[in-house]
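Title: Comparing notes on inverse folding

I've been comparing how different people in this forum approach sequence design from structure. To keep things fair, I'm posting one structure and asking everyone to reply with a full sequence. Here's the target:
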């Protein structure tokens, strides 16, 4: 989490990023915005979606299978 300093922008702009290695696969999420909490929530949502996508790709039974 970082506060971006750019003299061309008005107000505060926050940037968050998350990196994760899961089963040898690199997963990354990043977001920027004016509300620090919203930026963190956005990164969390992106990361959750990427992990879900990675898990479903590795699942030989299919995306929605429940065996």
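Reply #1:
Here's my take.
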């Amino acid at each position: 989490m970082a506060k971006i300093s750019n003299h061309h922008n008005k107000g505060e702009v926050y940037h968050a990023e998350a990196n994760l290695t899961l089963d040898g696969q690199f997963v990354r999420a990043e977001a920027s915005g004016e509300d620090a909490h919203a930026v963190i929530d956005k990164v969390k949502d992106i990361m959750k979606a990427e992990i879900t996508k990675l898990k479903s790709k590795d699942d030989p039974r299919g995306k929605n299978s429940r065996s």
